[in-house]
Amino acid sequence: MFHLTLHLADDALILGHRNSEWTGHGPNLEQDIAISNIALDQIGQARNFYQYAAELYNANKDAYTNIISSPAFLQVIGSIDEDDLAYLRDAMEFRNHLLVELNKGDWAVTITRQFFMSLYQQLLYTDLQYSADKRLAAIAEKSLKEVNYHVRWSGEWVIRLGDGTEESHHRMETAIDQLWPYVGELFIPADFQLEAAASGLLKNPEYYREPWLEKTRAAFEQAGLMIPAPNWYQKGGKQGIHTEHLGYLLAEMQYLQRSHPGAQW
Amino acid sequence: MEKQATINLEQQFQDRVDQDIRIEPKDWMPDKYRQTLIRQISQHAHSEIVGMLPEGNWITRAPSLRRKATLIAKVQDEAGHGLYLYSAAETLGISRAEMIDQLHTGKAKYSSIFNYPTLTWADIGTIGWLVDGAAIMNQVPLCRTSYGPYARAMVRICKEESFHQRQGFEILLTLSRGSEAQKAMCQDAINRWWWPSIMMFGPADDASPHTAQSMKWKIKRFTNDELRQKFVDICADQVKILGMELPDPELKWNAERGHYDFGKINWEEFWQVISGNGPCNKERIAARVKAHEEGAWVREAATAFATKRAQKQSAAVA
Amino acid sequence: MKIVIQIQRYGDYGDREPVKAEGATQNQADWPLWEVFIRSKMGLDHKHVGSLHAADAQMAIENARDVYTRRQEGISIWVVESKYIHASNPDEAASFYDPANDKVYRHPTFYDLPDELKAM
């Protein structure tokens, strides 16, 4: 459960962080504001999950000591909080999908990734609302409203760019080719997801593969885009084996917390 | 138009302004009034947009999730404020594209404060406290400015700005109660931002070319020096709560005037920064140009798609 | 700087062709302007809140949601492309609005009724 909560939090934080890199640099003012809103939603979701994860951790520290062993984290005295989880874990202790940590790329990459992730989160949170765990269910219910909007917004952009100009169509194809190898990981269960499925917290993610593909196909059809042939999928994020990108992201994100141990901000 | 008629129109216009009746887009207005407004509103809009950059610089490094979220929300608000202001200026017959072009080609100016770098996290707090504080002081009177769309935009902006200064001060307060290193970080940021902040009120009244006419037209409602004095008075008290100091040895309460006296402003630096020689002028504009150019294909694609969709819809109707 | 008055704008229309502002770069990358109206609470009228740029109506609604309802300002959004708004002419203000000044019988306070009369 702790693992699962952390995984959900990490996905939301890392994607929110990537999207926030657009703030101040969007293709125009209106879209700058739109992508920042999505970043804010995701960071808000991450905070809810991290706060819950911190409670779980504090309630049963001994059970989790082998899960997080970064020296900075172990130096925390007393109870841990959301920021300790976000800022003091090392890259190998992050449980997010590889897809969310990739660089933000151009607007086509950002949109395509957002669409892929939002569709996945929509399916996931819809079920999680009815989870046996009431806290996760409550967070999912609140987050789902946001995610539904993200699906709508990113889906429209997928169609708009796919069916826009020659250049935008080409950029979408490139983005899809780049991201597709990372999509499979969404549906390959990690151990903690199998455990969660066994204890009735959440379905095995394999279950979402078909509905996800169906919705993606529908949007791509309108956009005049093709779903790539099944390919070898990159995976490992949920086991802590990441791409090179996450290390840089964390080095930047965590540096203040780490250079001033124990400080309040 | 005959001269007499113009004079009458000008008189009517001034009468309306004197009676505090708002001027609206379709109303007759002197050309100079229109130009002054376009200049002022677009500069104000540019300042919001360029102002996103120094603060946005710390979004990915904000030291807690709460700070990260509030900083994104704040920088996002600035985008919103720029948008409201560009819209207000557009009612005067200039397009946003033109204004942005003027910014990118260096024809339009923006607040020189944003040409200073944000070097530490404390700079984010200091910008909130001092820079937003100075901005609010300039902006509140603008809610009653004579041009309707500008005044309405400013009402919305001022409402939203109120959290900005508070979040800044809260950052500094936390630092001022933190470790020695954090305290030093806080004082250092105040030292670097204080003088540029009080320059934000613009040149002294005797050297400010636009103030007199702008006062008469009620575009501006207080002089630069009046607002600056008010700001210094407030900050001199607020800094005590932080247990920090303002970097001005001449800062002293003057009981006779009922105000703080303060030292001489380095106007040479002000003019240099305004005219392009600040530490970050080139980087700021380059960042804006880059975002705009890299966004061009996105904007074009959306236009092309909208056209196609409209054609499909009208074909379906026919 | 020479300013040419462009008459393509909310509150500033006529039947003439819009005058291009000098140096205007109206191209594919510039989206048209939309006016935004928001209804704040159940029962109140939509109110003009400002404008924004968008490529089409759907995007205009979404942009309005992101730009103008960040602080729970609204529960309903209308957008209309600015060029479709027709406005009254301020030069005709006298003939438009002054005639209403002496029609006080349109207001309930015009009628003199005894205080004993309740619930009216």
UniProtKB/TrEMBL annotation, chain A:
Gene3D superfamilies: 1.20.1260.10. InterPro entries: Aromatic_CoA_ox/epox (IPR052703), Ferritin-like (IPR012347), Ferritin-like_SF (IPR009078), PaaA_PaaC (IPR007814), PaaC (IPR011882). The keyword Mitochondrion does not apply. Keywords: Oxidoreductase. It comes from the Bacteria. Its EC number is 1.14.13.149. One of its GO terms (molecular function) is phenylacetyl-CoA 1,2-epoxidase activity. Signal peptide: none annotated. It holds the Pfam family PaaA_PaaC. The keyword Oxidoreductase applies. This is Phenylacetate-CoA oxygenase subunit PaaC.
From TrEMBL, chain B:
The gene is paaA. This is 1,2-phenylacetyl-CoA epoxidase subunit A. GO terms for molecular function: phenylacetyl-CoA 1,2-epoxidase activity. Pfam families: PaaA_PaaC. InterPro entries: Aromatic_CoA_ox/epox, Ferritin-like, Ferritin-like_SF, PaaA, PaaA_PaaC. Its EC number is 1.14.13.149. The keyword Oxidoreductase applies. Keywords: Oxidoreductase.
